[in-house]
Design brief:
Elements (H helix, E strand, L loop, with lengths): L5 H12 L5 H14 L12 E3 L7 E6 L2 E7 H10 L6 H12 L2 E8 L2 E9 L6 H10 L12 H11 L4 E5 L4 E5 L5
Helix pairs in contact: 1-2, 4-6
Length: 184
């Protein structure tokens, strides 16, 4: 995307994930290793500053040797890149939308305020969950979906599972009820 190779994307994504203990962060490290043979590196000697993932920033990253790498939710990385003088292409927006519509989680990766690409993480719902939700509803228990995914991904997941009708849409700072997608 925007001139970056898949190997460059994988390398930057792995570097930004080395200190990311979320399931997504760990899976990115494994993905870079399995697809491109990129081994984890020790950045201790480089005075690296790891940026932890938080619910508020919705991205993680690393700064070292004058390089800044960030990985996370599309809107968060977009805001970060634009605030630092970079650009965010329509191509990236389209890839994020495509991944979201396939009920995947799009993670955008940027290096030095330039978008390198989008990682497609497939959201997996364990076998039998849909049936368990139906059983709970039969007992009069209301089920809700709360997710950190963007609203398009959340709507695709809900539609595929046919489990959720009205969703709560919220952000780090507030919550509102809406029909359709949920983002919390």
């Amino acid at each position: 995307m925007d001139g970056a190779s898949k190997e460059e994307l994988a390398d930057a994504a792995q570097l930004s994930s080395l200190a990311d203990e979320t399931p997504e962060g760990r899976s990115v490290v494994v993905l870079a290793k399995e697809l491109f043979g990129i081994r984890e590196r020790n950045l201790t000697d480089s005075n690296a500053e790891f940026i932890p993932f938080t619910a508020k920033t919705r991205m993680s990253g690393v700064n070292f040797g004058g390089i800044e790498i960030r990985k996370g939710a599309a809107d968060s990385v977009k805001e970060y890149v634009l605030a630092n003088g970079g650009t965010y292409s329509k191509e990236c927006d389209q890839v994020v939308l495509d991944v979201s519509n396939k009920d995947g989680t799009p993670l955008v990766v940027a290096k030095d305020h330039k978008i390198l690409g989008v990682i497609y993480l497939k959201d997996i719902i364990k076998h039998g969950v849909k049936e368990k939700f139906a059983d709970l509803r039969k007992m009069g228990i209301k089920t809700i979906m709360i997710t950190g995914d963007n609203s398009v991904t959340a709507a695709a997941i809900a539609a595929e599972r046919s489990s959720f009708r009205n969703n709560l849409q919220c952000s780090y700072n507030n919550c509102t009820y809406s029909s359709g997608a949920a983002r919390c």
